[in-house]
Amino acid sequence: MSEIRSVALALAVISSLVQPAHAGTQTAELSSQKSHSTRAAQLLVQSSDNVNKVTGVKINSTDKGIEIILESANAEALKPVNNNQGNSYIADIPNAVLALPEGGNFTQNNPAPGIVSISVTQANTNTLRVTVIGEGSLPNTELFDSDQGLIFAVTPIASATKPQQPTQAVAQVTGVKLNPTNNGLEIILTTPDGEKLPVLPKTEGNTYIIEINSAQLRLPSGGTFRQEKPIAGVSEITVINSDANTIRMAVIGVDSIPKVELFDSDQGLIFGVASAASSTQAQTQPQTPTEPTQPSASDEPIELTVTGEKDGYRVQDSSTATKIDVPLRDIPASVQVIPKEIIQDRQVVKLNELADNVSGVRRQETYGGLSSQGYFIRGFETGFETLRNGFKDFGFISPRDVSSIERVEFLKGPASILYGSISSPGGVVNTITKQPLSDPFYQINGTIGSDDFYRTSIDLTGPLLENRSALYRLNLAYENADSFRDFVNNESTYVGPIITVKAGENTDITFGYEYQKYDYTFDRGFPNNNRVVFDLPISRFLGEPSLNRGEFTSNNFTYVLESKFGYNNDWKFRQGFNVLNVSGSAGGVQANSINDDGLTVARGYRVSNDESSNISFQNEVSGKFNTGSIRHNILVGLELSNYSYQYEFFRGTIADLDIFNPIYGAQPESVSRSDFQKYGGSNIALYLQNLVEITPNLKLLAGGRFDWVDSFDRNLETGTNNNETSDSKFSPRVGIVYQPTDSTSIYGSWTNSFNPQIFGRSRNEEAFQPETAEQFEVGIKQEFLEKRLSATLAYFDITKNNVLTTDPIDSDYQIQTGEQKSSGVELDVVGEILPGWKIIGTYTYTDAFISEDNDPTLVNNRLAGVPYNSASLWTTYQLQKGNLQGLGLGFGLVYVGQRESGIPNNVKIPSYLRTDASVFYKRDNWRVGVNIKNLFDTKYYESQGFYIVPAAPFTVLGTVSFDF
Length: 964
Prior knowledge:
The chain is mostly beta strands. It has a 22-stranded antiparallel barrel. Strand 10 and strand 11 (149-155) form a beta hairpin. The protein starts with a helix and ends with a strand.
């Protein structure tokens, strides 16, 4: 009953946020020059809850000109509204969608003398637009109904009525290319006559329009170019022929007019478009400066308009949840994306610090302080498994530097649908690295901080060849630091080159390599069996300064081929290959438990030599097509992978230590090899996914993955196998999204995961079945403040089955009767409240516990490291004008409730409230900032699952960066 009440409560909260959408009645009169509609009585446009589908467009010649037939089973419901502009006859049809068999829009150039072009396009999610461009003036148009559909009878006005214009050669634009840049992207109009073409800019609402006279678009695919959501802050870019000698380019901003710059080059006209994240100024009203009549021959950029509003914290799409680029509002799951702007503003040094900015996620302390990634997500520990650009990374001994990170994507809930066997049903974390840019960009950073912290990083990118057919990026980082912990320090070196080669017009090949060496003091913190550890100074070290050390080296090679093909390049083939190898050793003296006297700690000596290897080979085809009025975005994939982990343990005895008055210098005795093991597996997987747009406001995501996994656990010392298993498993996912308005998405989903069991033994030596998990999730995604701010509210319920428990007959064996549950509510808010005022906030309630176990004393024990309640806030404000323009302040709060330190629940970790702050100044190409972490020197601790790890006290980091 308590679970039912929880679900009802969450649904009530969600439903209370949804405002019913009531479409207002709209009245308009359709008129055109010298035209009379035969259905004038039907020109009142009324609201309708039904969306009418246009399944075909035909153009027929007539004695007077042409007729345009919109084929529809419900033609009488199509009610056009006139919106003429200049020589263009424009009719918008509400409550209508274009559903052509071949997908996309309809365009035909020069269908008849006096008519430049005809297009039928989707103006927005539920409005169809018919555009007829006259050569000399607005054509006459009449409307008729027929059994075939809605007919537009078009009669061009004789071009002889036009004033005679001087004859001028018309330049041809033969290509349109979009290339990513550091600030956004560049639009290249390929023409040999770029310097001669006059460019006339203007604005309409959030749309920046550029008209290029004496030019015509002559693309191999026709006379229209269209790209949706090319970068953050831009919803669409279109390039069309507006008449017989004019090209019209429109850049439509999401919330404001984008920033556009014009450059001349040998390739043609280049327009630089800034993304929302890269814009550095914001004004309430955009301005349109005067553009010279004659084009400038200077290489200096021509400023066409000022920047729109900046929204650097909010990312609007993600690839982790679907492996295709999909707007977050269309995904039936909770996905949070942390961009590099937050990493910079918070001065994040270790990636697991980002857990503070994602609901339902807590950091898990790593292997003796290694700079790797560990998380508790929705109550379950990830086992240090993460993804690097979609490839698996067993992060337990794998260091990860922040310098090359573009963004980090947190997909919550089981992820086996795309990534196969996953140790945690709570979710998966994918780090996306920076990619090469076509424009040169160079940045250097330097940081100095508390406890002798020194760090520098370099980011270099640009073209390798003059024609930009080969691009590069190089990230370098070096870090050297002591610690607030006695005798603890670390040193890290990172090198990350990446090259992208354009192998064809629509084919790119990327080669990447990452090297990192991490040398550190092995320090696991305090044992979790006695609360006396909270009375110790947080600096107390319970190992041996001369013995505790760790060093790991990571080598990561990646190859990715992406090739677009098909109509309008709607299909893509992706092939990826990744090899990740990490090796090294770590150990020393480890505190095992506080003795009964509460004054001393029992310790052990252990050193391990470790090596892990991941090899992945992925092949995927994705594409868009229509079946009638239904749109599909499909993904089909094949993955081959192999994973292994080898460890060699040496153990010995060592003297206890007085925890209040430590005297160091003990040496280990009786050291010998205790374990020499290797485990891993090979995997073959097929997966299929389809994102179906049933109607523009109703979307269905469905798919499944079938895995064949062969796993092993081998004793290398004896040459025998401890365990071998062969598992096959199908992991389905179904989700639905309903969007009653263009700012609201309501979703529900059902997902599954599995994880092979290669450890443990049964009394009859039978192989264990894989652990499985099932999740139900419902939520709402809402945009506010003209879509500058977004919020996600979700309720989830996860059940993990087939958990190994102790065999009640013989404690040396296990049986699969365990079950764990986690349910809760999560809220994430991110975006920009006002120009320059950015915010990211979270709240989480999580109830994670053992629901079934052979040991009755463990039933209802809470899972380790997971509080009932947690919340966070990080916000910055940067002055937008005046003498102090560029000055900014940051403020953050992190609250984490009481948590259990382990299972069984013997010791609770206290709750805490931490305060962070920052001040920064950015001007031109440089930025200086000071970050204060733990402003009020709060004493708090984090969990590793078996150890309690003190967190850093008051810490100051000062950073200077230059772009050039």
